[in-house]
Amino acid sequence: MTVRWLLGEIDATPSHGGPPDRETARIVDYLVAFNRVGFVTENSQPAENVQYDNDGHPLYGQRAMVSGWCDRSTAQRLVRLTLASDLIVLAHQPGGDSCVKIPVTIAPGGPSDGSDDSYAIWDEPEDVGGAFTFAGSVYGDEDIDDIFSGECSPEAVTALQTAWTVEIIDPVWGRDDVLWPALAQVLEAA
Predict the structure, then answer these.
(1) Model pTM?
(2) Residue 147 within a domain
(3) What total of structural domains would you count in the chain?
(4) pLDDT at res. 3
(5) Sheet bearing 40-45, strands edge to edge
């Protein structure tokens, strides 16, 4: 389903209420390849260089990141990326939860995940960038059931509930040429 959505063959998935964002076009070939070898992507974004206002405050920027579901063996291979690079890999076992919040997007207006301002990086007016989106959280079993059970088979819902959730983040803001090829190399080696 995710591959069909990425290729524009279907308009939405249970966790994506519409087509992929325009920025996804830059990484769509990677995402399709990852999904086809067992890393079912759920969230991703290419990197964007940080833009600053005249006072040197960051206004907008992105870290390259991708998250998804996979089996234990794939999760173990992905975690090894931390041994050979400076990429951050968060692996969450099935049924696990996480209170980790790693900012991956800076944008005016502060957090987009409904959290309070305690996650904002800069205590500045709304027109100055703050942490806007985060990596580090995972869907619990109830969330997966709520989001996917209406559109997916019971077997697919169970597969997601028993899969590992893995998030890979490039810690360098604006760098878009490390995460994607490194992840492709690890997943192709399977």
Answers:
(1) 0.84
(2) yes
(3) 1
(4) 93
(5) 40-45, 65-70, 164-169, 88-92
